Amino acid sequence: MNVLTEHETKKILSRYGIPVTKENIAESEDEALAIAMHIGAPVVMKISSPDISHKSDVGGVVLNVGIADVRTTYNNIILRIRKVVPDARIEGVLVQQMAPSGHEIIVGLKEDAQFGHALMFGLGGIFVEVYKDVSFRVTPIDKKEALRMISEIKGYPILRGIRGKKPADIDAISDVLVKVSDLAEKENIIELDINPLIVNESGAVAVDARAMLG
Ligand code: ADP
Ligand code: MG
Fold first, then answer.
1. Stretch 157-176: mean pLDDT, rounded?
2. Average of per-residue pLDDT across 73-97
3. Whose C-alpha lies nearest to ligand 1, atom 18?
4. pTM of the model
5. What is the predicted pLDDT for the residue at 150?
6. pLDDT single digits (tens) 132-149
7. Counting ligands in written order, which one lies closest to the CA of residue 107?
8. Ligand 1: which atom is nearest the Cα of residue 96?
């Protein structure tokens, strides 16, 4: 069993055409600055460690970092993690593109002994955690089925845009679901989570992901 980091998981997603944030791992404050300049500020900075899968729980995620703050943020993250999780192996700090705001969506995949793989879709945050408002399909699925999967959650009207919130690009979400389904058929995936996929009116991007390979 092999647990991949966010950056490693996104490399797999990318191979299947799933949009991911532009990003790279910095091993020094100089590298962090160079990557941030290349991507364009503001950036998001996250601890990269094979031993830490819930990064914000340990203070390992800083959003909206301007160029002037990249060096200090790099050092602060490393110092904080050394203190909070002293045994964690630290690969560096992942410096990534800040996604435009939008709806936060969760896409999950789980190997099932009986059915192959179960694909899960839901809205992020309280919708999944409190209301368990999710839909499931056994893979593989096509685009039509993906669209059905999206429309059957209770929160679907939210994605269509209500109360001043703009509609989500449903077509982009269904593309991601089909591509994750494709990935499930070809890779040895025990578990995969995109949490969240950020979706606005014109596209979707995976900003966090984690996988367990067999
Ligand atoms: P965790 O390992 O704690 O799940 P995430 O990488 O998901 O950490 O980051 C925590 C939250 O920060 C996300 O749920 C999302 O709301 C926000 N976030 C993370 N990365 C980005 C990004 N690149 N652009 C915009 N928001 C982001
Ligand atoms: Mg996350």
1. 92
2. 98
3. 207
4. 0.96
5. 98
6. 899 999 999 999 999 999
7. 2
8. 23
Q: How far is the CA of 123 from the centre of ligand 1 (A)?
A: 14
Q: Give the position, in ligand 1's atom list, of the atom nearest the Cα of 210.
A: 2
- Taking the C-alpha atoms of residue 184 and residue 118, their distance in angstroms, rounded to an integer, is 9
d(CA 184, CA 42): 33
Nearest ligand 1 atom, CA 44: 23
Specify the amino acid at residue 133: D
**Which protein residues touch ligand 1 with a CB less than 6 Å away?**
21, 44, 46, 54-56, 61, 63, 96-99, 104, 195-196, 207-208
Cα 209 from Cα 206, distance rounded (Å): 7
Higher pLDDT, 126 or 73: 73
Q: Is the pLDDT of residue 127 over 90?
A: no
User: How far is Cα 21 from Cα 9, in angstroms, rounded to an integer?
Assistant: 12
Q: Which residues surround ligand 2, an ion (CB under 5 A)?
A: 195, 208
The single-letter code of the amino acid at 153 is: I
What does each C-alpha distance from 183 to 16, 51, 115 come to in angstroms?
Answer: 7, 25, 16
Tell me which ligand sits closest to the C-alpha of residue 55: 1
